[in-house]
Amino acid sequence: MSALSEFPITNRWPPSDPSVIQLYAFPTPNGVKASIALEELGLPYEAHRVTLAEADVKSEAFLSLNPNNKIPAIIDPNGPDGAPIALWESGAILIYLAEKTDKLLGATEASRYQVLKWLMFQMGGIGPMFGQLGFFVKLAGTEVQDPLPRERYVNEAKRLLNVVENALEGREWIVEDYSIADIALAPWLGMMENYEAKDLVGWTELRNIPAYLERFNARPAVQVGRNTPPRNI
């Protein structure tokens, strides 16, 4: 009996190798945080494609792992004290993987807190606000006739982009070294193109963010992680 047999999700998405980390995700800005981190850290893992369809994320199998029905989620058969651990929430997963390997979390105690600060900034600001921007600019919210919601999220996206733009002045990465904060931030920054919102947020006026995204996307681990698990099979 494997260490993963106690997790009902493995009945729907059975592991090929139960000795490695099991990733349940889809290539969204949040989903790729986990796959990019796993690639960057060189941790062995197995990716299971869990789409955003209710048949997947609201299935009994997935809810048994994450009652909040959101990807990504992981099971590490070799967790703390050698016992399996299940985690969800992309920020928590990033911190766990970084601490497990003692990498991508800052070279000093002071830089560690800077990394965590920017991770929380992404989780509490960039992610939710950009997601709402996408909803009102490109997705179902475009049918809302009241212009106020759209204007609110466009303006907030501009403000948040300027925070990042200024922080990147003279820097290659958001803190001194490449970290989980970059893995959290960059995929969401790239969504301005997906949402067809670049003109709305003044993208052409930005100098640091486009160069930052180019550096990020050129990393081999990012190129693999952005497409893991594959969107289409």
Automatic annotation (TrEMBL):
<dbReference type="InterPro" id="IPR010987">
    <property type="entry name" value="Glutathione-S-Trfase_C-like"/>
</dbReference>
<dbReference type="Pfam" id="PF00043">
    <property type="entry name" value="GST_C"/>
</dbReference>
<dbReference type="InterPro" id="IPR004045">
    <property type="entry name" value="Glutathione_S-Trfase_N"/>
</dbReference>
<dbReference type="Pfam" id="PF13409">
    <property type="entry name" value="GST_N_2"/>
</dbReference>
<feature type="domain" description="GST C-terminal">
    <location>
        <begin position="108"/>
        <end position="233"/>
    </location>
</feature>
<protein>
    <submittedName>
        <fullName>Glutathione S-transferase</fullName>
        <ecNumber>2.5.1.18</ecNumber>
    </submittedName>
</protein>
<feature type="domain" description="GST N-terminal">
    <location>
        <begin position="18"/>
        <end position="105"/>
    </location>
</feature>
<dbReference type="GO" id="GO:0004364">
    <property type="term" value="F:glutathione transferase activity"/>
</dbReference>
<dbReference type="InterPro" id="IPR040079">
    <property type="entry name" value="Glutathione_S-Trfase"/>
</dbReference>
<keyword id="KW-0808">Transferase</keyword>
<dbReference type="InterPro" id="IPR004046">
    <property type="entry name" value="GST_C"/>
</dbReference>
<dbReference type="InterPro" id="IPR036282">
    <property type="entry name" value="Glutathione-S-Trfase_C_sf"/>
</dbReference>
<dbReference type="InterPro" id="IPR036249">
    <property type="entry name" value="Thioredoxin-like_sf"/>
</dbReference>
